Amino acid sequence: MNTIILIFIIFLAGAILTFLASNIKGLLKEVLFLASVIVPVVMFFTGVKAGDSFNFHLAGFAFQWEITPLGYLFALIVTGLGVMAAIYAVSAMQKTKNLGLFYFNFILSIMSMLGILFSRDLVSFFIFWEIMTWSSYLMVVYQGKDVQKVGIKYFIFSAIGAYAMLMAIVMVYSLTGSMMIDKMIQSYAGFAFNMQIIIPILFLIGFGVKSAMMPLHVWAPGAYSHSPMAFTSLFSGALSKMGIYGMVIVMAGMIAYFPEGHWFRIVIAWLGGITAVGGTLWAIAQDDAKKLLAYSSVAQLGYIIVGVGIGTPLAMLAALFMAVMHALFKGTLFMAVGAIEKQTGTSNFTEVTGLIRKMPLTFLASLMGIIALAGIPPLGGFVGKWMLYESLIGSDHYLLVIVIFFSSTAAFLYCYKFLFGFFLGQEEKEWEHVKEAPVLMVIPMIILAGGTFLLGTFPGLVIKPISAGLEQLGYAATQGKYWEMSMLFNEWGDQVVLEPILYAIIAVFAFFLVFLLIKNHKNTRYVSTKDISTSGEVPKEHENLTFIQNFFQPFLRAVEPLMKRQIDFYYNGFGKGIEALFDFTRRIYTGNGQTYALYAIIFVVIFLLLKTTLFGI
Amino acid sequence: MVGSPVLLIAVPLLAAFVIPLIGMIWKELVRIVPGLVLAYMLVLSVTLLVEVNQNGTIVETIAGWKAPWGINLVYSNLTGLLATIITTLGFLVWMFSYRFKRNVDFEPAKKYFIFLMMLVAGATGIVITGDIFNQFVFIEITGISAYALTAFYTGRNSAEAAFKYLMMGSLASSFLLIAIAIIYSQLGTLNMAEIASKMHTMDPVFKVIALIFFITGIGIEAEIFPLNGWAPDAYTEAPGPIGAAFAGVVVKAGIYAVIRMVFTLFDIPAAHDFLITIGLITLIVAESTALRQEKLKRMLAYSSIGQMGLVLVAFGIGTHAGVFAALFLMLNHAVIKPLLFFSGSYLVFNSKEKRISEVNGLGKFMPYTAGLFALGSFAIVGLPPFAGFWSKLSVLTAAADEGLLLVIALVLIVSVIEIVYYFRVVNRIFFQEYNKEESVVPHKPRFNAIIAMTVLAILILVIGFYPDAVTGMLHSASSDLLDKSGYIDNVLQVGQSLIR
Predict the structure, then answer these.
(1) Do A171 and B409 lie within an 8 Å CB cutoff?
(2) Which of residues 20-59 of A touch B (CB under 8 A)?
(3) A 322-351 residues with CB below 8 A of B?
(4) What are B207-245's pLDDT values in tens digits?
(5) Do A152 and B213 touch (CB under 8 A)?
(6) Domain range spanning residue B329?
(7) Roughly what angle, to the nearest 10 degrees, separates helices B251-259 and B132-150?
(8) CA A357 → CA A431, A432, B5, B106, B248, distances in Å?
(9) Is B400 a member of any domain?
(10) Which listed residue, of A184, B33, B155, B485, carries a Cα 20 to 30 Å from A586's Cα?
(11) Rounded distance between C-alpha atoms, residue A466 and residue B350, angstroms
């Protein structure tokens, strides 16, 4: 039997079995859950290779599932993060009610993401897209918080996106008579001009919603922070990347006919830039770690959209590299927040402080995640950002460089806030009982954080599959240079030369390290948090020295005009207007039989009067 | 050979007279015998459909009077499919409502089951008859059973709802009679096939007036806006399973009558555009009204109206793909909406007001019923991999082939509204806390009800995962509807068709 279909069958059967076993005591459901995630993933890595395909016909449409190089790259993200998040989830979700539903949707989400990546025809693409939407929706409302607002908002936006996409799909179908993605890309050049514009825009609305592109991002903060953290790491890390995957296909495949620098590309890139800035500013303003990371995800995806929008080979490379990195470090960070929330009961920095000694491993993972997020070498975030800058400068988008630079510098603020708020600062009595998270939660975090280090040092590991994916999209074999596995001895084509920078950074670090060690060697003394004096006074036991409230007020005040009106406000107003309008239409049904009879008479009279116009007789 | 199409009508009519008598022997028989009759009708309609699929249309003449003089029944791929849907649902409704309310005793139960049987028989008659006046008679039979069933609870509200329904129904009959009179006066025949073959000779003015009266008359049964004022009240006040029967049986028969007029009887091309327009208006008004409803069954009723609007839009497209999509929608609606009515009526079983806000947290107490309601909601809004998705996709591709982009956009926007109001309810059931003061006291569904619901749920999953199970049937049904000359030839015995 074909391995591809077998993978889906195992996922589906595993989901159902786990759901059915959820009421049985003991570890059966956990074992089933892990098995139904890991077994297909192992089969994916061992049993299939790029180029394998599976074809069948259903309901008059031809279905084709094939493993493409680009799909393989994204499948690496999905499977890697999926397995880690699954292991984390088993421990994190212990003693939760209704666990069957969680496991069921978790497995279905992974299955649907792989399905999206394998689909070479638009029908199965859409089917898996929708399965992904509703399974993730059930995760958002799973904890029962704010379901009518956050959950419905997520679904409304997803539905708008999906239906925009569906409209594009049926338009493509009527134009080409085929549902194949390849066929769509090939015949795109022959479409009428209005179709050439409308179809990509509709697709981009669909993908923009999932990747939380402004102004379609309003669902993201609520949805990310309301779903269980075990799922959010997958949600933000992998699920949002499906939007990026779609964009890459549409932008690189269909818009390939638009030259670089075409207004359509510029608009997308700028939308990405605005997303990055807006997301960053809002992230700085948050006091809840989940919300902070959610907005940060919005911002990070903004960078990726910039890269995809620009669309030069290097920009695409940068975008895809950052997509992989974002999955790794955002997965780590959401898991860390989940661990902290599980151990302390809250994810608010204004409440939790000084966890560094209580949860050292979580701190380590968070630290690495934050470094990668901020784009500091030698972790992977740096490589991606560097390539993005390089590609922006290389294609003369200087204004965008400034925007991105502003956003990624401002990102340091929330990075610091995250680390300081949770881990540093004064240790308080209230949190003395806190212990390190269970080992099954720590291991995935550490592995993912290690991944950021590995890929930061040896970016060639992931650049290889990326360039294979780009070749599939029709880009020339990237730069035509041979690939070394080490960043240190790597010549990245003729555009990025990293060695001097890296050597310089290492030299500076080494210099200060040696300098500090020699200078302070003899005076080192170990202190506790309160062993200090402020303005000549020694603080007492109960005094609070941690000033996490109103963090970054001056900065926020400075950027306030930018953040004054949230787009959310307009959406809510629009929604209310619609509801009022519908209340009005509801009045048509008065509940009075006489009115109804009158309607019938009026109906007949109108048609009798208008019969010539209506029926042409 | 189980029987011929006429038995689909004769057996329930006969049984309706016999049941009160045998009820005197053993009271339980008034519940059992209608079920047996409905089961027989189901088996018969399925067998005949299989036979039709192999051998072609069956035309049955009654009492030896050949068409166009006598009444004849036409059991083709299209009518057979609809008859099968109707009888299947009739049987499931019977199974579900066997002892639905325990306190219902002999006398009301007798009426309930006899009327249910007559409702199904009448609707089957509407679909399979080949005579326009005969169809009118069946519309009356269906209508009268429906009024009686609406008033089943004999309260003030149900009496009012039934009266509204009755009022609109009488209007419908008057319009229909006028239309039939016009046609008879002009063409001198009541046989549908002969009307269709002679229609081009009719004076255009009379033709249009007859069409308008027809559409108004049947539109009341088919829930076309603005003729559907009776529907929300009737759905809400009738017993839950009867709501399912209305959605699955009565409306389907009404829609069939409309499309038979437009596609076969009248040769007015503009009528297709008219169907699209009126369907879209119905769809938009009904779905937007549904969003603001506070009662569960009323919401389902408006949703049902909206779906019928979508069916009319799809028929209005008029191509093979459009008709296929419309029939697919009808089939899916007939499977999904009853499931929603069944499970919904158990969710609000112990509630007086039947408000949506009362279902909070019920998922914990009645997981199976609530899960089936969620499945139905997922399916009806068209989420894959459930049944509703395929029909929605085929409507959209059919519309795209004709370049009706505005229609596609409107249908999709309305689908978003649909998602909102269905998911609000699903959220309440599963993800909000049970509140003792507000929420309904849960009520365990009976075994027979669970079986009826499970059958529908299985159908949803089967169609969702393997739509090819039904598409073949739907394709031959749509070819059948579009083959006007074939219909005429079959009935008037011009061709080589099988006459019995």
Answers:
(1) no
(2) 58-59
(3) none
(4) 888 888 888 888 888 888 888 888 888 888 888 888 889
(5) no
(6) 269-465
(7) 160
(8) 11, 10, 83, 76, 66
(9) yes
(10) B155
(11) 60
